[in-house]
Structure formats: C-alpha cells, structure tokens
From TrEMBL:
This is Cation acetate symporter. Keywords: Cell membrane, Ion transport, Membrane, Sodium, Sodium transport, Symport, Transmembrane, Transmembrane helix, Transport. The chain crosses the membrane at residues 6-25, 77-95, 115-133, 153-170, 182-201, 247-269, 281-302, 393-421, 441-459, 465-486, 498-522, 542-559. One of its GO terms (molecular function) is symporter activity. GO terms for cellular component: plasma membrane. Belongs to the sodium:solute symporter (SSF) (TC 2.A.21) family. It comes from Stutzerimonas marianensis. It is a multi-pass membrane protein. Its main location: membrane. Pfam families: SSF. It is found in: Membrane. GO terms for biological process: carboxylic acid transport; sodium ion transport.
Length: 589
C-alpha cells in the first residue's frame, strides 16, 4: 500500500470516529451545548482539556522551536505547564463554585456591570480569534503534506470536520471528540519518539534517551549535539540565555496567559462539583506531561538527525550533493517548507549559521557563500518518522495526530466564541427573554459564523502564525487573568477599576506587539525594528503580556481605591466563592 493511502486510512478512520461521536453526543439543550450537561467525569474532562490545550502549536511547533532554539526555548515548556498549575490552584475551583457558563458571565456578575461583561466579551473574542488562526494554518500544513491537497483545500476540509461535530454537538460533542483526539495525538507523538530514541541511544524512553549515550559516537547525546551545532556556527544547544529578565517575563506571560485562556477555563464548568474542577486540572497536567516531557527529546534528536542527514560524515566533511538528498527532503520541498538555494554553485547543500562572525572565516575557507538550506520549524515533528526511516504506518499516525491536535483546539476556541456571542451578548445583554430554542439556534449560527471567519483568516493570515499566537497569550495575560484573579481574591476591586484595568492591559499589550511586529501584522508596518537592542528594557513583544498584566492590576486597584467600594452583596458573593463547600450549578443564566 502506498504512503498516500496509508495516510488516508489513518486520517479517514479518525474522521469517522469524530463524526460518529458527534452524532451520538448531539446537544439537545443549552446546558449540553455550553457545559456538556455539567456531568463530565474529572478524568474524562482532564483528557479533553489536554486535547483542547495541546494545539497545533504544541504538537507541530513546540518541538521545532526546541530543536532550533535549544535551552532558551524551554520557556514554552515551563510557561505552558506552569499555567496549568496556576489554573488548578487559583482559578478553576473558584470559577466552578461561581456556577456560570462563561468567563464574561463571571466578570459581568462579579463586577456588577454590563460594561465589564462587554469588555470581557471583546477580549475573549480577540483572544480566541487570533489563537484559532494558528490552528487552521497547522491543519492546512498537515493536510497539504499528508493528503496531498493544497493548503487552502486542507483548511476547508478542517473547517468542514469541525462544523460536523462542533455545531451540532456543542460542548457535549466536543468533549467526547476531544477525548478521542487526545488518544490519537498522544499515540502519534510518542510512538515515533520511542523509535527514534531507540535508534540514537538504545533507550526506548525518549525523555531518558535525551540524557543517554549517543550509540554511534559514544558521547552523551546532548554533548554530541552541542558539538555538531557549534561546529556549524550555531549557539550550543544547551547554552544559557543572557537576558534573564526577558526569559522570566516571557515565562510569566505564557503562564498567566495559559491560565487566562477562555476556551480552557470553560472546560472546568463541565464537571459536577468544585472538587472535580481541581481534580480535572490535576488530570490535565498528567495527560499534558506525557507529551511535554517527550517534546524536548523529540526536538534534540530531530536536530541531530537533521545535521547528520546533511553532513553524513560530520560537519568537518563535505555536505551531501543536492541530487543525493533523501526522499523526505524532496517531499517537503514540494510543500515549500524546505527550501534550497545553491549560493556557491557547487551542487552541495551547505547548512550553517552564516550570521555567526566566528564562523565566517571557516565558511570562506570552504568556499561557501551563505546558508543554503531553510527548514521550517513546523516540519520537525511531522517529518521525524521520514527522517528516521520509520515504517509507513508511523507516518500515517503522525498525520492523524497532527490533524487531531489542530482540530481539537480549534473546536474549543470556536465554542468559546459562540458562547460569548449567543449567551453573553444575545441572551444577557440584548434579549434576556429569548427562549432556549432560539438561544440554541443563535449558538449554532454563531459557531457557524466563527468557523467561516476562522477559515477565512486561515486562508488569509494577518501574519506568521507564531506572531498571532503570541498576541493571543499576551492578550489573555494582560486582560482576563488579572480580572479573574481580582474578582476572586479582592472584595475591594469595583466595576470601574476592573474595566479600566482590562482596557489598559489589553491596549498596552496590543500596541507594544504591533509596534515591533507590524500593525495587525501587516508586513512593512512595524514602527520599531524587532531586535533585542531596540526592545524597551530588553522586553520582547512576546513577553510583554506580563507587563500588561502588571499594568492591569495597578490601574484596577488605583481606580477602585479612588472610587466607591462594591455593594455589600457583591463583597458577600466574593466571600462565598472563596468558601470551599457548595457550588452553584452551571445553568443559572
């Protein structure tokens, strides 16, 4: 059987599974559409939440970032995992105790303000829309490579599958579909990693293999990797970072951005009790850890395999000739994610760091005129089985897993957008007397509109997916997280303070990012060069969400202290939310 049909078999079987679950779990009420009926088991919810969180960025991009950046990119692992600890300890149980459907529900009622609810809705939609672009783009990459369709066709197929189970199933359909998607993606991620770890180190456990001996050289694997990348002028894989402040703020931004992501928070409204919300967060960490502990090993081993592919006899010897490049390189060249330019017309593939001054003399001695190979980070995980010459069925697994990762998170984000529009705008602010049947229709129409918007943005992205995702985390960190924290733990913060804080946080973060990355990511519109020497106090645009959060807290408290205290019933409500016993049911709307 050809590789194409193996891929079709794995992907097609997974699609049939998702649609079958959607038919079985079709939502029949607003409670089932918004919170899956409120009776999801903590283990099930933990698995679904892990799939909701482990997006195309986690499955496709994270190992690629680690492969290219080494230790410096460990901030993604620390930030995203740490965010779930914050969510489990500081947000999930209290929000479940409050007993509402959505994040704007909590903010609107806690800060007794239609304005606060409206600002929260706008922030939620901005965060979710920007984040979903990366998922659609990731789905397009996976479809175009493995099903041999165009990127555009892949995005439309992804949209159709999400429509099939999200519009009709709502949270109920999405929850059980995400459980299946988690199983698919974790198997797809770990099996190739086990094969590759065995090949390079003889250790079948990838995270242990990374610290084992490289079989061929007899050196520790990371030492061998440091050796080959520094020989090519790159920074040592395990090198420390100079800008500790930026690393700290970036990690913090990812942490509180994770804790403030609305599509993740709403998952904790689906469990029966407050204790279940905390257990769900704990199980989510367990399920996430299976992938996040494997990702550094996948990144390091893929980087070593890539260098060995280009320099089979080591960096000191000649690189491979272009016509001798492996079949996997030829395959990925057709997608445009690997590009080669013969700058010195010698017919060989020179890959090295041509920006390194220390390496320039060596390059001149060898007759090189610049780096000739460009490899997109997003292919590292997807191409890993081919790089390591693994069986065709492993490549089929990777195809199904990559698509599952993109679809699971896209569905969660689209549900968050749909709930904000149908419940928080239409039901709460515009027409409180709307019937449940009409609200369900509004929710499904909102979901359909959100899918069409996400598809259009995936086809016409406003910038690189990584930039857009960075904005999503920054906005979540600077807007919703501080409002949720102050709403739970401060009885003194009032509606005026909350609204002012959210506006200052989200506007300052968006403006700072746009100054360096271009206004709305339009090429050529950046006002300041995006280089470390131009960053304000050395803070990168990706890390500014933490600063926006600090501004949010400061402004909210300053305005609250200068104005009247919240009504006594609101202060009593805050005290009640922090009391461990009891929980409202997530249907009071």
């Amino acid at each position: 059987m050809s590789q194409y049909w193996i891929n079709m078999l794995f992907v097609g079987a997974s699609f049939l599974l998702y649609i079958g679950i959607a038919v079985w779990a079709r939502a029949g009420s607003t409670k089932e559409f918004y919170v899956a009926g409120g009776g999801v088991h903590p283990v099930t919810n933990g698995m679904a939440t892990a799939a909701d969180w482990m997006s195309a960025a986690s499955f496709i991009s994270m190992a690629g970032l680690i492969a290219s950046g080494g230790y410096a990119t460990s901030v993604y692992l620390m930030g995203w995992t740490g965010g779930y600890v914050l969510l489990a300890m500081l947000l999930a149980p209290y929000l479940r105790k409050f007993g509402k459907f959505t994040v704007p529900d909590f903010i609107g009622d806690r800060f007794y303000s239609r304005g606060a609810r409206l600002v929260a809705v706008v922030c939620l939609i901005l965060i979710s829309v920007t984040y979903v672009i990366g998922q659609m783009a990731g789905a397009g990459v996976a479809f175009s490579r493995f099903l041999e369709v165009s990127n555009s066709a892949g995005i439309w197929i992804a949209a159709a599958i999400v429509f099939a189970y999200a519009v009709f199933g709502g949270m109920k359909g999405i929850t059980y579909t995400q459980v299946a998607q988690y199983v698919v993606l974790i198997i797809a991620y770990t099996i190739p990693a086990v094969f590759i770890a065995m090949q390079l180190t003889g250790n079948p456990i990838p995270m242990l293999g990374m610290f084992s001996t490289h079989t061929e050289s007899g050196l520790p694997l990371l030492e061998k990797l440091n050796q080959v990348v520094t020989d090519l002028g790159f920074t040592a894989y395990t090198a420390d970072v100079d800008n500790k402040l930026n690393m700290f703020l970036f990690t913090l931004s990812l942490m509180i951005g994770t804790a403030g992501l609305p599509h993740v928070i709403i998952r904790f409204f689906t469990v029966p009790k407050v204790a279940d919300a905390r257990w769900s967060a704990g199980w989510t960490l367990v399920f996430i850890a299976l992938l996040y502990l494997t990702a550094p090993a996948v990144g390091s081993m893929a980087r070593l395999n890539l260098v060995n592919t280009i320099y089979p006899e080591g960096p000191a010897a000649e690189a491979i000739r272009y016509e001798d490049r492996p079949e996997w390189v030829q395959t990925w060249e057709r997608t445009g994610l690997i590009q080669w330019e013969d700058k010195n017309s010698d017919g060989r593939v020179q890959m090295y760091n041509d920006a390194s001054a220390a390496f320039t003399p060596t390059a001149q001695e060898r007759g090189w005129n610049g780096n000739e190979l460009t490899v997109n980070n997003d292919i590292i995980v997807l191409a890993n089985p081919e790089i390591a010459n693994l069986p065709g069925w492993v490549i089929g697994l990777i195809a199904a897993g990559a698509i599952a990762a993109a679809l699971s998170t896209a569905a969660g984000l689209l549900l968050a957008i749909s709930s904000a529009i149908s419940h928080d705008l239409i039901k709460t602010l515009i027409n409180p007397k709307i019937s449940e049947k009409s609200e369900m229709l509004a929710a499904r129409l909102s979901m359909t509109a959100a899918i069409l918007l996400a598809t259009w943005l995936g086809l016409n992205p406003p910038g690189f997916a990584a930039q857009v995702v960075a904005l999503a985390f920054g906005l979540a960190a600077a807007s919703l997280f501080p409002a949720l924290m102050m709403g739970i733990f401060s009885k003194r913060v009032n509606s005026k303070g909350a609204v002012a804080g959210m506006l200052v946080g989200v506007i300052s973060t968006a403006v700072y990012i746009f100054l360096y990355l271009g206004w709305f990511f339009i090429p050529g519109t950046a006002s300041i060069p995006n280089t470390p020497d131009q960053w304000w106090m050395g803070i990168s645009p990706q890390a500014f969400g933490a600063v926006g959060a600090i501004l949010n807290f400061a402004v909210a408290y300053a305005v609250s202290m200068a104005t009247e205290a919240p009504p006594q019933e609101i202060q009593d409500l805050v005290e009640s939310v922090r009391t461990p016993k009891g929980a409202g049911v997530a249907l009071d709307h």
